[in-house]
Inverse folding.
């Protein structure tokens, strides 16, 4: 689906625990409208939604918590260890997620100077947003492992399984329009983001002149 030219779109992606959300927050503070694919993914599997019903019919009632919500940790453990299950989940949720993303982009373009869509598995999804500039948030592998294990309480083996399920971060960097290196301090990352923001906004201004 083509989007209006009212505001440019940046896809923000990267690896797990690379710092995408931090970069998204910096961009939001600068004035961008940020859309989170993870938030949309949670929205489409809320109780009563068709996607949750399909997940239960596919994977069983064990995927529900006692209060009737999706047991995300149990489902994550299943799909990270079973390629077939992961593909089944994607077939259930991805069409609805992308439909909502497209809708939210069109709405945001009417009111923001820049629309940022944070999509962790953008390259892996095989779905591409027309005319979007792709920014990859990079972090070195050692730091990525440490952050993931600390953030999610995972063992080294569990962290490795999750990282192995994604496209290598260096491969994503090769395919990116811009790379934000988040291997160092927050201040250094923020400086890179602000520089990228100024560059993009200046290009927009020149087009309007």
């Amino acid at each position: 689906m083509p989007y209006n030219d009212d505001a440019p779109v940046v896809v923000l992606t990267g690896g797990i625990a690379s710092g995408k959300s931090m970069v998204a927050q910096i961009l939001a503070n600068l004035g961008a409208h940020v859309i989170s694919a993870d938030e949309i993914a949670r929205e489409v599997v809320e109780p009563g939604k068709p996607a949750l019903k399909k997940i239960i019919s596919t994977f069983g009632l064990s995927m529900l918590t006692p209060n009737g919500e999706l047991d995300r940790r149990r489902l994550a453990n299943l799909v990270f260890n079973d390629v077939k299950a992961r593909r089944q989940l994607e077939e259930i949720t991805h069409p609805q997620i992308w439909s909502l993303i497209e809708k939210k982009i069109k709405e945001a373009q009417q009111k923001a100077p820049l629309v940022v869509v944070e999509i962790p598995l953008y390259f892996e999804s095989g779905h591409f947003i027309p005319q979007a500039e792709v920014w990859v948030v990079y972090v070195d592998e050692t730091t990525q492992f440490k952050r993931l294990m600390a953030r999610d309480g995972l063992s080294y083996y569990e962290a490795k399984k999750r990282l192995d399920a994604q496209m290598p971060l260096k491969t994503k960097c090769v395919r990116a329009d811009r790379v934000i290196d988040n291997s160092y301090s927050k201040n250094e990352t923020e400086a890179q983001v602000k520089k990228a923001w100024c560059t993009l906004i200046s290009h927009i201004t020149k087009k309007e002149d």
The beta strands are 9-14, 33-36, 115-118, 133-138, 178-181.
